[in-house]
Automatic annotation (TrEMBL):
This is Importin N-terminal domain-containing protein. Residues 23-94 form the Importin N-terminal domain. It is found in: Cytoplasm. GO terms for biological process: protein import into nucleus. Keywords: Cytoplasm, Protein transport, Repeat, Transport. One of its GO terms (cellular component) is cytoplasm. Pfam families: HEAT_EF3_N (PF24987), IBN_N (PF03810), TPR_IMB1 (PF25574). The lineage of its organism: Eukaryota, Sar, Alveolata, Ciliophora, Intramacronucleata. InterPro entries: IMB1_TNPO1-like_TPR (IPR058584), Importin-beta_N (IPR001494), Importin_beta (IPR040122). The keyword Nucleotide-binding does not apply. The keyword Protein transport applies. GO terms for molecular function: small GTPase binding.
């Protein structure tokens, strides 16, 4: 035992690095070789009153780490577990506060592992019972432990069943009525427990009681308790959001004083910003899925809107004279964010309040008022799109521009901010203004500076270029060359501290290039970029890196633009720029994502002519990129470049490289390959299969197993609904669906049914059923692609002898009918109309009534 104590002391407190490292390694070896003995020794040292507190806490820290790390707790026997639990529980009433907290931390780690597995259920009952104990120390210890358990469950994203959740909440509520320290711990515990309280808080009686206790803390005269309760309300209001109308006036009552208090204003406005943001997010989901949106929450917010908005606008007036950053994380910035979210949530209900504030403060003698006026309007503009605001922007833009020359720098910055937002949301206010040329010239002059205003006005011009894409009449083409020149002056400057402004300027150039309609103009810029690519090698550091990235992106866009404009392949242009990119690879002695994207665009432009470069590129450059599996961006760039090349060539030119499918399939199965890169791999495999058609048949089973595994992973996600991974699974689903569609088209060449693929349809339907559920907010594009695949299945396989009924069953299945119903809601889109017509034709071919007349 003494030897173990000495090991802990050496590992935690040894003066020499070697001494600590050796002791740590010995402890690791003990843990792996004799886990029961190791855990028991940790616990024995921890509870030993013969040892000093420092050593005991170190033993507790080691125990806590080993319990949680790789769930080491699961490696030891039941008898040892029981003994350690009892020993830890005994330390919850220790007079040493550090020992008490360490014991609670260890117990929480055990609970985070065992409670979700329905093990050790009695612990919650024990702790909850002790929250009512006569002894203040026992009561405090129980509350601390409950709090740590909630925190551990939250950190490990674990849940417990409803019965245990109710017990935990009861214990927390007891603590919310206790003395200060217990109350603070209970508020934190409530905040951490909300992720597994959904089923408990649907009970109104419970919800009313918890809200009452939290509101009482939110108006406490004790500043620590009040602040903690207000912070908790940010998350709590999300948990009770579906019942918001029942509590909105109570929430306003308990926050209306705090919103004006300098110590509580920020967190209070975050509560209301959070409520408004939740309304906005649900409205966005509704718009995206056509699910419908419960307006009760919005109507609830309207009940307190006038007082709330006035308070938020009042806080916009609070500004620090010496504050260098115009976007400081203070009261004013919190007010700005809240004003933005509330404006978006309530729309024209609140605009008049905002506009009246703007009009009353814009010409004020006080610089704080002028700044607040600009911020108030900016908060509206970036979240709304209505005629009223467009008209006000049109009439006020001149005044806003005048404020760029204000006597106070913070007003200038605020003016830049609002002009940027107007350019982003209402670009035509500037572009169609009678003084548009003058305004754009004025903005350009600020590009010579080197401060926040330069950044704002640079973004203003870039935002204007975004509007050029919608310029079908080419009415803004007079600005293209001028703005590209202005952006180029920014890129050529030597006095910036980093590449952020250069990156923004390159975005502006690329936006302009995407709007040019004359191939010769594009080629003129390509020539200039080629020359600059050579010259930029003399630059150093971040400037060189930013400009090479920008140049390669610009070259990429230019060649894609030539494709869109239908320009015939210029062989010399193809060769020159291919040589330029590979020379760059040679100079840096490696390959890059931007370089691959430029090559992919050259291939798309060159089409069949790229065959003369194919061998050199595949063997000397792409192969290097495909080996960089751990460099995610480069690897992904290489994969997508390969996909574009495959699509650009005919199969006979690409056929010698068909075996690359083996490597791509192996990469998908490689656990070291990043999951985002695997999405790119699915895209690439699909494109190669599509051009290879029946030649890819030897790879069918291997590819299908990959796709089927993807289906399984995605279905598992839908069942667990881990929203943190939603974006990834949406992208994966798109890639899987595209891959399956390509397989359908490739393997059913000339509409001759390919039976092995026919046998996969049930698995495919299960995948579509799971991933098209409305609760997952599938996009219209995803529904359209799903319907396309299902109709293709019906079309291809109705010819399979003896299986006509199966095709008819698929055509009339609730799955396909529900998807068609969803598409019908967007029948104004031509692609959707075509699919509905195809469905009707298939219904007719089976002599069934049309789906939709």
């Amino acid at each position: 035992m003494q030897e173990f104590v000495e090991l802990i002391q050496a590992a935690f407190f040894g003066k020499e690095n070697n001494q600590r490292s050796q002791a740590e390694q010995q402890l690791v070896n003990l843990k792996h070789q004799l886990p029961n003995e190791f855990f028991q020794n940790c616990s024995s040292v921890f509870i030993s009153t013969q040892l000093d507190s420092q050593t005991r806490v170190a033993a507790g820290t080691l125990l806590q780490r080993c319990i949680s790390y790789e769930q080491g707790w699961l490696t030891i026997g039941l008898d040892v577990k029981r003994k350690i639990k009892d020993e830890l529980l005994s330390q919850l009433i220790s007079s040493d506060q550090n020992i008490k907290k360490s014991a609670a931390s260890c117990l929480s780690g055990i609970c985070a592992i065992e409670l979700p597995r329905q093990e050790w259920p009695e612990i919650i009952s024990i702790l909850v019972q002790n929250t009512r104990h006569e002894s203040i120390e026992i009561k405090k210890a129980a509350t601390i432990t409950l709090g740590y358990i909630c925190e551990a469950l939250k950190n490990q994203k674990q849940s417990i069943d409803k019965t245990e959740s109710e017990k935990v909440l009861y214990g927390i509520c007891m603590g919310l009525q206790g003395e200060k320290q217990i109350r603070l711990i209970s508020i934190r515990a409530l905040k951490d427990s909300l992720q597994f309280m959904d089923q408990v808080l649907i009970q109104q009686q419970v919800r009313d009681h918890v809200t009452k206790l939290l509101v009482e803390s939110a108006i406490s005269q004790d500043s620590e308790i009040r602040l903690a309760a207000l912070e908790c309300l940010i998350d709590y209001t999300k948990s009770i959001f579906d019942y918001l109308e029942q509590y909105i006036t109570v929430l306003w009552s308990c926050t209306q004083e705090s919103i004006f208090h300098k110590d509580f204003a920020i967190v209070t406005m975050e509560i209301w910003q959070s409520i408004a943001s939740e309304i906005n997010e649900r409205q966005t989901v509704s718009n995206r899925t056509n699910l419908g949106f419960r307006k009760t929450q919005k109507e609830a917010l309207q009940l307190v809107a006038q007082q709330l908005i006035q308070a938020v606008l009042q806080n916009l007036l609070i500004s620090d004279e010496d504050e260098e950053d115009d976007e400081e994380q203070g009261i004013q910035e919190a007010a700005y964010k809240a004003a933005s979210s509330i404006s978006e949530a309530l729309g024209n209900i609140c605009y008049q309040l905002y506009l009246r504030f703007v009009e009353n403060t814009l010409q004020s003698q006080e610089w704080q008022n002028r700044k607040a006026s600009l911020l108030a309007f900016s908060s509206m503009v970036e979240t709304a799109d209505v005629l009223e605001l467009f008209q006000f922007s049109n009439s006020a833009i001149g005044e806003f521009i005048k404020k760029l020359a204000d006597s106070h720098k913070q007003v200038k910055y605020a003016a830049g901010r609002v002009i940027t937002r107007i350019a982003e949301n209402y670009p035509l206010v500037i572009l169609k203004h009678q003084f548009a040329d003058d305004y754009i010239n004025q903005f350009s002059q600020f590009l010579q500076g080197n401060n926040k205003l330069t950044k704002y006005l640079l973004w203003t011009l870039v935002n204007l270029t975004e509007a050029f894409r919608d310029d079908t009449n080419n009415q803004f083409c007079k600005y293209y060359d001028f703005l590209i020149t202005q952006f180029a002056t920014v890129i050529g400057r030597q006095d910036f501290q980093d590449g952020s402004l250069l990156d923004i300027a390159w975005v502006g150039i690329i936006n302009c290039l995407q709007c040019i309609k004359e191939p010769q103009t594009i080629k003129k810029y390509l020539s200039a970029f080629g020359q600059q690519m050579v010259a930029v090698y003399s630059q150093i550091g971040w400037q060189k890196e930013a400009n090479i990235s920008g140049l390669l992106s610009a070259i990429h866009i230019c060649f894609l633009r030539l494709v869109v404009l239908g320009d015939q392949c210029d062989i010399q242009l193809m060769n020159n720029f291919y040589s330029l990119i590979v020379d760059y690879f040679k100079k840096i002695q490696t390959v890059t994502q931007d370089g691959f994207y430029a090559i992919s665009a050259i291939a798309q432009y060159s089409k069949i002519n790229f065959k003369s470069l194919l061998d050199d590129f595949m063997q000397n450059y792409l192969e290097i990129g495909l080996q960089k599996k751990l460099e995610i961006e480069t690897f992904k760039g290489a994969i997508l470049c390969l996909a574009d090349i495959a699509r650009s060539l005919q199969f006979k030119e690409f056929s010698k490289y068909l075996k690359i499918l083996e490597y791509l399939i192996a990469c998908v199965n490689d656990s070291q390959v990043n999951r985002v890169a695997k999405i790119a791999l699915f895209i690439c495999i699909a494109d190669i299969v599509l051009i290879a058609e029946h030649e890819a048949e030897p790879y069918f089973q291997a590819i299908w197993q990959l796709v089927k595994s993807g289906f399984t992973a995605s279905i598992y996600f839908t069942q667990n609904k881990d929203m943190a991974q939603l974006e990834y699974y949406e992208n994966l689903n798109d890639a899987l669906l595209n891959c399956y569609l390509c397989m359908l088209h490739a393997y059913n060449l000339n509409k001759i049914p390919y039976i092995p693929l026919y046998q996969t349809i049930p698995d495919f339907c299960m995948f579509i059923q799971a991933t098209s559920d409305k609760s997952l907010t599938p996009t219209v594009e995803y529904i359209r692609l799903s319907v396309t695949c299902l109709l293709d299945c019906v079309s291809y396989y109705k010819q399979v002898q003896g299986q006509e009924n199966m095709s008819q069953k698929l055509l009339t299945s609730p799955l396909l009918i529900s998807l068609l119903d969803m598409l019908k809601q967007y029948s104004n889109q031509s692609e959707n109309q075509q699919l509905i017509m195809l469905a009707n034709d298939l219904f007719k071919s089976f002599q069934l009534p049309q789906y939709l007349n």
